[in-house]
Predict the 3D structure of the following.
Amino acid sequence: MTRRCGKSTTLMDEEILQKAIVEQAEQDPQDQAGLIVKVEEIHFNEILKLRLEYRNILIIDHLWEFTSLAKLDLNHNVIEKIEGLDRLINLTWLNLSFNSIEKIEGLESLRKLEVLNLSNNRISVIENIDTLEKITHFFIANNLIEKLDKVLYLRKFKNLFTVNLFGNPVSKEDDYKFFIAAYFPNLVCLDYRLLDENTKNEASIKYHYVLEEMKREELPMQQADEAEQSQESKVKLHTVFVEFLNGSYLFKSMFEDDPEAETLHCVPEVAHLLQTFEHQMVEQCMQLFEIGLAEHKRRETEVSSFFSGQDKAVMDYQQKASEILENFEQEQKKRIVELKQLSDPDLLEVKINHYNDEINQLCNSLMALEFQLVSQLEDIIKKLDINISDIVGNFSETVQGIFAQCRDLEDSYNEKVQKIAVATLENVSKDKLDKDMPDDVKMLFTDKDTVMDALTTGHDNHLLKINGRETQLVTRVNAWKVALIKGIQDKELKRNRMRISDIHRYVDHLWEQLEELQYHHL
């Protein structure tokens, strides 16, 4: 024990960790720690949960062996700095509430973390948790977060659905609830309360313009992130079409599980033929592999060109839509002030009718812009479909041509082996076989039907392997093309429906606002 500012603090060492594990086992026999009977049998690297609350711990230490730990409670201590957690790479739950922490740090290695509780500390900035991509619950109640815009840092976490900011200065700001609901559309709970759909709808209408602006600004970064995340899978998907064709993999697979073929290969003339056949097959496969890589580049270039064009079209559209909304909202403020000041019923009716026309014009302008974008995107998707179909079609023809040559090589090999087999059978009948020839080869060539059946079966199996690999390659590349175009079309359809819904909701809000003004003048 040490003393600090009149309070005794606990040193976090192996002794206190062992004690905590034993207490945990005694309190909860069903827990994994309940299996531990003696202190000397405790293995820190096997512990899954650890509770260290209410122990006056000042410094986090001695946790480097807890590599399997999934849940760690360090709440209600006197911890001032987040440290010593680097080795806890399997941690999914971390509770550091009710401490004296001023800065979020030291969490970079906890990439599996889902629940993070930092409530009741002295934190003023939400920062340094970029690597926690799996986080779903973030609690930072009763801290010192002051500005609403500082909370926007959390928008990058796509899995986040529960946030608690209660007790921070920020939670006392006007429109706090609507601000959070608008900027975090996927959030389910805020400050331990469900965000209902009415609140979300009202928030999205209230912050419609600023959200449009933010989406437009965030779009390039979002697209870059998506491109980076999908790059590896795209490359893998493309190159898998010619996997294991850069060598003798296909050739060797043709002769698997074929004992008669192995026996035949012991005939010197057949062994030489086989060596030549393998060399020729490998040449064809290598040619196909190189063509496949070149075709991958062509497909990748075409797809990248499409997405660049699509991104530009969407960004231009968002720019124009933002300008229309900005001009309308500037005029709207003036109109609302003017309407509130009018007392003449006739003039008021004229102005309201004019305002109603302006709303209709706004709706028509936004819809026309959306349909213009839809038409533009349909054209470039159609162009992509045509170009990709041509690339895939030409590649498939090339593939079929090369596999046809592989079949010709197999036919030629089989024909030559049959001639050698017939000659060998004749030598057997005349007892002219080489004395050094293995006994199993001699045994095979004692029965003509067995030899010819083995050759026919082997030939059929070899062709099946060649045909199967050809079918697999052509099927995959065609399936990729279909999935690519369908995925793009589905995503665009979803975007279009959401956009039209947004326009209608915003226009409905404007009409409701107009009706409310009319009601107040009655």
Summary: Residues 220 and 312 are 10 Å apart (CA to CA). Strands lie at 2-4, 7-9, 49-51, 71-73, 93-95, 115-117, 137-139, 162-164, 189-190, 193-194.
